[in-house]
């Protein structure tokens, strides 16, 4: 549901803000996301882990929450104060006129964002996954509704930022209410007994580094484009990124599911099953993502102006340059979760650190020379390197994700489909007709060729359909 809201709201926000202000909004969210990593990542995974353990001590959960509540407050306060100081010293102004004010707003966003993260991960620690989904939808909905309303009232970028603040604060309150109904508030605010703070503090140190490397891939390029090229260019580039990243919808879901299931397999030392699972997931994901990427590449010249407006036609070439890397990263996402499930984070950090370094170096070299296209090329290479590096990390960890990969059959299926839908699109004059006909044609051709070449087997398709809810379940009860 959050993805549907994002798909619907993004072009509205882009049109209301325009290229320049949308670029400013994008770079502010990137700065916030990177800045929050050391502030938030030290809290979220830790509180989720230790609350879920629910040890024999009567007040274990209250002591865990007490520790992380204090730590969250201290880190949020320190982060806000530091941001206010560096903004007062003039750092915010280096991004352009008005950014000092925006950075002061981000200082407030840090506090509410911290407690939203604490509440959400505590909810997960209690095993209340059914609450997390609605809270995510609530956050996205309130952000969009409040943000767009304030933009329409003339508040521009500040309006969108304030929408984030209101949404995060609301989710923190709702999540907090769900938490306090399950604990003793008296114990939570009582004087703490002796507790192993070292155990809490040492947990997640490697995970913070891993998150920093991965998140840098998503945000460093945006910040560098804004700094080197300007606000409008950042808006055009972010628009291309947003479309390319829609390829990740299914892999992100798989990533979240595989982290838990693969952890169980690793703990039981079921290495052959891990390899078989990773091999199938990698091949299935590759087929799905290549189908989506070929379709988006073919229709990009129609999709971009219809989705964002004619002014954003300049985003088409960066989008095409980003797609190969987005495909690689999409295939790599499930592997990232399986590697995390093993607990061997050092190898994973080496792999993601290498990709993050490639990203910074190439963007630094290519953006001054080629602008948006340079940023798209650099980011695409770094995204694509994640697939190669995570295959290496997987093999170092103890499983092979390319077992039964069938690369020749996948390539033949993709090329045949691409040529077919490209020719079909070239024969259709209407944008709307093409956007209706070409995806359906592409799906039919791709499925048929994949079965003929045995890029995927019939029995595998039947097995997948058996897992799909009605009306597609071929064996209804």
TrEMBL record:
Any one Gene Ontology cellular component term annotated for this protein: plasma membrane
Membrane topology: Multi-pass membrane protein
Source domain of life: Archaea
The entry's keywords: Cell membrane, Membrane, Transmembrane, Transmembrane helix
Annotated localization: Cell membrane
Alphabetized InterPro entries for the sequence: Poly_Biosynth_Transport
Secretion signal, residue range per the UniProt entry: none
Protein's UniProt keywords contain Heme: no
Segments crossing the lipid bilayer: 25-44, 65-89, 101-125, 161-180, 201-220, 240-260, 281-300, 312-336, 348-370, 376-395, 407-426, 432-452
Name of the protein described by the UniProt record: Polysaccharide biosynthesis protein
């Amino acid at each position: 549901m959050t993805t549907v809201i994002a798909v619907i709201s993004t072009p509205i926000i882009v049109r209301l803000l325009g290229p320049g202000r949308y670029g400013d909004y994008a770079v502010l969210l990137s700065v916030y996301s990177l800045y929050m990593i050391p502030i938030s990542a030290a809290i979220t995974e830790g509180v989720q882990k230790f609350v879920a353990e629910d040890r024999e001590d009567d007040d274990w959960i209250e002591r865990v929450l007490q520790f992380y509540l204090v730590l969250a407050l201290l880190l949020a306060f320190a982060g806000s104060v530091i941001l206010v100081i560096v903004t007062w010293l003039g750092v915010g102004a280096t991004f352009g006129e008005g950014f000092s004010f925006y950075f002061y707003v981000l200082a407030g966003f840090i506090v509410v964002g911290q407690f939203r993260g604490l509440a959400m991960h505590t909810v997960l620690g209690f095993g209340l996954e059914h609450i997390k989904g609605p809270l995510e939808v609530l956050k996205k909905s309130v952000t969009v509704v409040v943000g767009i309303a304030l933009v329409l009232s003339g508040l521009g970028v500040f309006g969108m930022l304030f929408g984030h603040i209101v949404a995060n604060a609301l989710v923190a309150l709702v999540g907090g209410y769900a938490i306090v109904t399950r604990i003793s508030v008296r114990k939570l605010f009582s004087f703490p007994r002796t507790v192993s703070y070292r155990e809490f503090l040492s947990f997640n140190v490697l995970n913070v580094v891993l998150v920093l490397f991965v998140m840098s891939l998503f945000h460093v390029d945006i910040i560098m484009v804004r700094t080197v090229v300007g606000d409008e260019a950042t808006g055009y580039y972010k628009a291309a990124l947003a479309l390319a990243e829609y390829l990740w919808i299914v892999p992100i879901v798989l990533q979240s599911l595989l982290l838990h299931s693969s952890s169980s397999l690793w703990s039981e030392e079921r290495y052959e099953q891990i390899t078989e699972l990773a091999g199938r997931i990698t091949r299935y994901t590759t087929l799905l993502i290549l189908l989506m990427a070929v379709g988006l590449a073919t229709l990009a010249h129609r999709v971009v102006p219809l989705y964002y407006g004619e002014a954003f036609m300049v985003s088409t070439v960066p989008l095409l340059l980003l797609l190969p890397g987005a495909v690689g990263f999409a295939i790599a996402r499930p592997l990232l979760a399986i590697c995390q499930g093993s607990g061997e984070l050092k190898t994973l950090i080496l792999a993601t650190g290498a990709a993050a370094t490639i990203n910074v170096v190439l963007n630094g070299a290519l953006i001054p020379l080629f602008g948006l296209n340079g940023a798209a090329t650099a980011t695409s290479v770094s995204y694509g390197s994640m697939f190669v590096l995570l295959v290496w990390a997987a093999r170092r960890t103890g499983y092979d994700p390319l077992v039964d990969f069938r690369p020749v059959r996948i390539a033949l299926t993709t090329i045949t489909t691409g040529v077919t839908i490209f020719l079909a699109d070239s024969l259709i004059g209407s944008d709307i007709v093409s956007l209706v006909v070409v995806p359906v044609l592409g799906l039919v051709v791709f499925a048929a060729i994949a079965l003929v070449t045995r890029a995927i087997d019939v029995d595998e398709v039947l097995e997948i359909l058996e897992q799909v809810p009605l009306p597609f379940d071929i064996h209804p009860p």
